[in-house]
Every structure is written in C-alpha cells, then in structure tokens.
Amino acid sequence: MKLLTHNMLTSHVKGVTKGYPLLIKATEVKVNDVDFNPQFVCRMIPKLEWSALVEAADLLGHRQDLPSELVPDYEKNEDFLKKVHRALLEVEVIEGCLQCPESGREFPISRGIPNMLLNEDEV
Amino acid sequence: MASSCSRTCLQYLLHLAHDNLDFRLPSPFWCLNSLTEEDVRSVMARSVCAKSAFELWGRGRTHSELRTSLLNYSPEKMSPYVHKESTYRINVYTFNKTLLFADRIKKIDALEYLPFEGTVSLKSPQHIFCLLEDYGTDPNNIPEHPNYVYFGRWIADGQRELIRSHSVKSRHFIGNTSMDAGLSFIMTNHAKVKENDLVFDPFVGTGSLLVACSHFGAYVCGTDIDYNTIHGKGRSSRKNQKWRGPDENIRANLRQYGTQKMYVDVMVSDASKPVWRNAALFDAIITDPPYGIRESTRKTGSHKDIAKAPDGSYADSHVPVSQAYNLSDIFADLLHFSAQHLVVGGRLVYWLPVYRPEYCEEMIPHHACLQLVSNCEQTLSSHTSRRLITMEKIKEPKENRASYSELDGLAGAPDPRCSPYHGHNAFREKYFSGLNKRSSKEDTRADVDGK
C-alpha cells in the first residue's frame, strides 16, 4: 500500500464519525524506485490531506524532512516535489495493518494489499 | 482570404475498422471537415476503431467523378507532395472486394492524370497515397463497380495494433471475465483518460481496464471484493492450467506491458461500502460491474445471525459472508460513488447489462450530478446485450450524501427501487430462462421434422 492511497482511505466501520486518517501499523516496509514524474505529483498535491501524509511518512520513518506545511510555489520546486514523490509512490507498506482511529478495528495489509472488508455484523 | 480558406477547407477521410459496428456509423468511410491535420493525428494516436486517416483530395461515385474531383483539387495544396524531388507510392484499398494484383496496377495506372512529378518508391516513400473503393457492406452481393471511390494522402494509422499486442490471450493474468483489449481501449477513450490522470476501477478483477488506461499515461488503482483475484491466487481461467502461478496478478500485467510505474494500489474491498474519504479524487472511473452470469454479484453482509465466540471475536480464518448484491443497487451505488469522488469534468464509463425485450432509454440509471454522454449497445444474444454508458460529472453533490431523492435524477421518484432499472435485478433469471426457451424450441422442431 502506498501513502498516496493511504491518504485517501477512511474507516467505514458502522457508526464511526472520525475515521480519518487510518493509523498505519507496519511490520514490513519497502522503498521502490519509481520514475519521478513532477506533473503527476503536482496534480496530486491539491487532493492530499497534507498533515496526514506527513504523519504517515513520519510514522514509517520515511519523512525525510517533508515540511509540516505545504510550501508555496511548489510547482517549480523540484527538490520538494522529489520528496513528495518518494513519500507518495516509492514508500510501500508490504505487511501490517490499518487501524480505525475511533473503533480500533484493524484492516490487514498482506503482500502490499489492504483488505478493507468488514465482517457481516459490522455493516 | 484565399490562403486561410485553403487551410480550413481541407477534408479528411477516416477509414474505420469493420467491427464493433454498434459503436459507429454504418459506413467504414467517414469524411470530416473543420479539422486540422494536428487534430486528425491526435485522434489517430488514440483510436482503436479507425484504421487510417487521409487528407482527402478527391471523391466520387465513379472513377470519372473522382477524376473531375481530383482535377478540381487545388494544385497549390498538392504541390508540396508531388514535386520533382519527392518520392511516393500509391496503394489501392478495396472494401468488401478482393482485387487481383493486376487489377490494382490497372487502377493505379488509370490515375496518370494526377500531376506527380516525383519518383515512385515502394520501400520508403516520403508520401503515401491511397485509392479507396467502397463495394458496399453486403459480402453476398458484391457489385462489379464500386459504389464510391476516394483518393487521399495518407496521414496516420490508428492504434489497432494495440488490440493484438495487448490481447488477453497472451496476458499473464486473466480471469473469466477479463475485458478484451479492443473494448478496454475504447472505454479508456470514452473516459478521456490522459497522461497523469488518476483512474479507479471499483470492480477491477484482473485489471484489464487498468492496463489500457496505464498505456495512455494514467496512474491506476482498483478494488475488488474477491480476495483470490486481487491476490492472484486460486484456479486459473486458462484451459490447460489448473492453478494460477506465483507471478499472476494485476501488477504483473502492467509490468508485462512496461507500465508498472503507473500502478498505485489494488485492495480487497466491497464496492457497496466505499472506503474513500469525501473528496473529488479520481479523474475517471472505468469499470465492468458483475452481471450475475459468469461472476456472482455480492457484497458483505448476511441475513442470518452469525455465531461468534463469547468475547465477540471471530476465528482468524473467518471469511466475511456475502449476500446477493442487487443489480439495480450496483448501478445506483456506482453513480452515487462517482458523483462524490470524480473531479468535475471527470467521466464514469461502465457496462450496463440489458434484457433487450424490455429495454427503453428511461431505464439508463441517472444522477443529478452526472450527464449522460453516450450509450452504445453491444449485442450479446438475441435477448441480451450490454450497453457502454459514458457519463460526465457536471457538478458537485450537495452536502447531504444520504439523500437519494435529491441526488437521483428521477423526478418524483425518491426511492431508487422505483427506478425502471429495478426490473433488471431479474436479469440473471431472464438471461437463463431465455436460453432454456430457445433450446426447448429447438428440441420441438427436431421432433416435428421427425429426426
């Protein structure tokens, strides 16, 4: 699971109102080499909840001095965009789980794939 | 005045492939005005339905009319391509007729009135021209002379090679309902997927649609309720293979075509219970939901009381029970989801299974925030078809997500279960009952014939 995806996921456990962001509990993390594409990064930044991204990267030990606030004029700042690219697309949680911050319910991640299915009595 | 007119007065001819006939105009030849060569090239860079595009120099119902038309074509427009230093070749293409080689040569020779001053080069000409002849669309009634003829300068070919190169037959990882390459690319084009888009498929299966989107530079993600398909496990869909191999999964499919870097994520998830925060995240949503025929329609949830251990926990090996996911709910949920999570201007493209005897346009699902762009039928059998529906998000939904009445475009019908599509929940029964009726009819006929 990449942090780009994590940034967009929320808990859908019945009755939960503050299900975002999901807490990441990782037992295995990988960093891949993904081609840097500044245009794509620029398009994604406005869609992100910035603090959730920084928090998640930090938790995984891959914050790499990502600032706590979005820098202005980031479109031309290649250094900054490369850091964002690394956090969004290169860091990958392979094993672990995502935890709902309100209910504590855990969604397992195995082989990089989160399983978000709820059990029949949770829906 | 004259020079600007000469730029805008160019005509183009598209030669369309003779398949997916429901998706296009009846003739394989389509003349277009008001385009630039750049427009034509960008269309050909994406189209899998168009074989070739030409700058149209002349046309007519007979060769005599063609000749008149060509002699009327401005010599200034011809001159860059026919001057002394140029090299060229002329091809002959006949639709619905096979020509002997000798006849092709005769037809080329008959064009000797054209002012070509350059040299013929068969192997590497600078300019390629084509004489196209249309012998109609009835293979059992081929006329002696063509119904229509065209002559033009070849500009570009379409992307039909993708249908072969991305064929599901040679793909690493497939399932029972993997979408064929041609249709996957058509869907990608309907969704106007472009470079650096983020595309989502909520019924991703083996990722065929994501493969096509990634080819045009989009980043892709998907979900599916089936754990085995997402993880690439379980029984193989190939005839002589029992189990799936270790490298069969969606990521591997992208890797096969060199687009692995476009892979964002796939997840096991129930499309009726979305897991995304409330924001316009996706540039396009492209999907082929289950019809309940070859893949079951399901969602998590159960009508029964489930026995749990006293501490309220499940055994580790518990697999969530699923119940039938009504077809009309699938589409209502899909439209609702798209209205929430598409960017404005983003598109939803999906297949809608239809029981043809009861079909009417009103039963296409609608939503106040989504505008219907197109509705193309692909016939599956005499009584069933599927329709490729394309919708575009035109506005954000109002704050209250729970209110179907205000979000659903059906005036005075707040309950989506009153939607005409509700009847299609019985699609599965109708599909199979239609098959049974047909086979029993054939049995009766055989008896009558006394065989």
Q: How large is the share of residues in beta strands of chain A?
A: 15-25%
CATH class of chain A: Mainly Beta
Kindly state the mean pLDDT of chain B as a whole number? 83
> What's the SSE pattern of chain B?
HEEHEHHEHEEEHHEHEHHEEEEHEEEHH
Task: Specify the structural class of chain A.
Answer: alpha+beta
Instruction: Supply the number of helical segments of chain A.
Output: 4
Percent in helix of chain B: 25-40%
The strands making up the biggest β-sheet of chain B line up spatially as 2-1-3-7-6-4-5
Largest sheet of chain B: 7 strands, mixed
Spatial strand order of the main sheet of chain A: 1-2-3-4
Structural class of chain B: alpha/beta
In the CATH classification, which architecture of chain A applies? Single Sheet
- Here the CATH topology of chain A equals N-terminal domain of TfIIb
What this model shows, in words?
The complex is a heterodimer of chains A (123) and B (451). Chain A has 123 residues and is an alpha+beta fold. Chain A has one domain: N-terminal domain of TfIIb, CATH 2.20.25. In chain A, 29% of the residues lie in helices and 20% in strands. Chain A is built from four helices and four strands, in the order αβαααβββ. Chain A has helices at 3-8, 38-44, 50-59, 78-90, and strands spanning 23-31, 91-99, 106-110, 113-114. The longest helix of chain A is centred in the C-terminal third of the chain and has 13 residues, at 78-90. Chain A is globular and about 50 Å long. In chain A, 33% of the residues are buried. The model of chain A has no long low-confidence stretch (mean pLDDT 94). Chain B is an alpha/beta fold and 451 residues long. Helices cover 26% and strands 25% of the residues of chain B. Chain B has helices at 2-8, 37-44, 63-71, 75-82, 101-109, 161-165, 181-190, 208-215, 227-231, 250-256, 327-341, 404-407, 427-448; strands spanning 11-16, 29-32, 50-60, 87-95, 119-120, 127-134, 148-157, 198-201, 219-224, 263-268, 282-287, 298-300, 322-324, 342-355, 370-379, 384-393. In chain B, the strands form three sheets. A seven-stranded mixed β-sheet of chain B has the order 2-1-3-7-6-4-5. Chain B has a seven-stranded mixed β-sheet with strand order 10-9-8-11-14-16-15. In chain B, helix 7 (181-190) packs across helix 8. The N and C termini of chain B lie far apart (78 Å). Residues 1-8, 401-419 and 438-451 of chain B have low confidence and may be disordered. At the A-B interface, helix 1, helix 2 and strand 4 of A face strand 9, helix 9 and strand 10 of B.
